[in-house]
Amino acid sequence: MKTHSITTSILSLANPWFDFLPPSSAAAWATKINDELNTLSHSSNGRIYAFGCLPLSSPVPEIIAEISRLASPSCPFIRGIILGTSGLGAGLDDSALEPVWAALEAEEMLVFIHPHYGLPSSVFGSRMQESGHVLPLALGFPLETTIAFTRMYLVGMFDRYPSLKILLAHAGGAVPALAGRVQSCVEHERGYCDEKGKRVGGPVRTLAEVLRENVYLDAVSYSEAGIRAAVEMVGEDRVLFGTDHPFFPPLEEGKEEWMSVKTNVDAVRAATEDEGTEAILGGNAVRLLQLDTGSLDIP
Q1: DSSP string, 58-100
Q2: Contact at 8 Å (CB) between 41 and 34?
Q3: Dihedral angle at the C-alpha atoms of 88, 94, 99, 102, nearest 10 degrees?
Q4: Torsion sign, CA atoms 30, 31, 36, 39
């Protein structure tokens, strides 16, 4: 943070979160880790806040109880939750997850959707290992997010929960590029129409409406074009700077500057101007997450 003049950060548990824990212990571990995140944030003198994590392998009532606790005064430094794409095991469009979405909407809690599982390795072919993690990270992660979010949209999640707030990782993956194609496919889907061609099924709100009213994107894009696409899709006031820390650290021994962080900062500055730049680099997060940065004493 000091190297890159970052005054305030949002921390979260890294993937795979609590997805691997048995139902008997997940809730207890969620409480323990979320409390530690809140305590760490408290000790930072306003420099650190956190996204909590849910025990998704637990029974739904225990998940909802943790949502309520994280939104209560007992966790004042928790500013949302981070969620993988598997949900309870069947994806974020699983009907069994509906009470969880209802609780998140009721508590006005921001949901940061982040990938972990990627795509089947068979998609990348027999030579995938020759390029290390490039294909899974560069393509698998963003496409995982794209598919998970689109599935949510197609089952009418944002019609039933119109106030739900979603933050998509990696500038929304391919969502900005494919949103128009998704909408066109929805409009032409015969399964959504009666015998006379009248729409009787499918999502009610357009994807453009959902993106402008329910969705925020982080700015972890690494390119000017990616930032421009994100801004064009959701608006300049709904894009938030991110670092990808602790991933993609400097490879050169002794080097302090993170190329990954600098690349994203440069991309934001190239794609925006003046107030828009400052909003994405911090102002949007301060407003959305209600961060108290007014009394910071930065060494």
Answers
A1: S-HHHHHHHHHHHTSTT-TTEEEEEE-S-BTTTBTT-GGGHHH
A2: no
A3: 120
A4: positive
- Whether the CB-CB separation of 45 and 296 falls below 8 Å is answered with yes
DSSP code for 257: S
Q: How confident is the model at residue 135 (pLDDT cuts 50, 70, 90)?
A: very high
Digit-coded pLDDT (tens) for 250-266:
988 889 999 999 999 99
Q: How many CB atoms lie within 10 A of CB 127?
A: 8
Query: 274 burial class (0-12, 13-18, 19+ CB within 10 angstroms)?
Result: exposed
Span 38-62, pLDDT tens digits: 999 999 998 999 999 999 999 999 9
- In this structure, are residues 143 and 174 in contact, taking their beta carbons and an 8 Å threshold? yes
CA–CA gap between residue 182 and residue 247 (Å, rounded): 31
Q: Residue 254's pLDDT is what? A: 87
With a cut of 80, say whether residue 298 has pLDDT above it.
no
Q: What angle do CA 194, 162, 79 make, to 5 degrees?
A: 150
How much is the pLDDT for 251? 86
Residues 6+ apart with CB under 8 A from 47: 1, 7, 8, 9, 296, 298
What distance in Å separates the CA atoms of residue 224 and residue 270, rounded to the nearest whole number?
6
The per-residue pLDDT for 20 is: 92
* pTM attached to this predicted model: 0.95
Say which residues have a Cβ less than 8 Å from residue 254's Cβ, sequence separation at least 6. none
Alpha carbon distance 173, 167 (integer Å): 12
Return all residues near 94 (Cβ < 8 A) that are at least 6 apart: 87, 88
Q: Which residue has the tokens 């209600």?
A: 290
Q: How far apart are CA 16 and CA 212, in angstroms?
A: 29
